[in-house]
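Postdoc handover notes: sequence design on the structure in folder B. Input tokens:
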């Protein structure tokens, strides 16, 4: 269980690092737009991300 969790966290960091590595301007612009969102909008983005992650985990098993 612990090794799987560490692998998942490592993969998440790798994937999150791809955009700033290969397209820093697009990443910066996206980050600026996210900062301008209201709390409810950010929560919705977080909810969609969470549900998408659960769906991927479910489909991978």
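Designed sequence:
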């Amino acid at each position: 269980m612990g090794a799987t969790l560490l692998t998942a966290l490592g993969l998440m960091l790798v994937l999150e690092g791809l955009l700033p590595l290969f397209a820093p301007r697009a990443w910066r612009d996206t980050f600026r737009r996210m900062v301008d969102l209201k709390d409810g909008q950010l929560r919705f983005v977080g909810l969609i991300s969470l549900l998408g992650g659960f769906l991927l985990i479910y489909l991978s098993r």
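Context for whoever picks this up: The chain has one domain: 2-60. Don't rerun without checking with the PI first.
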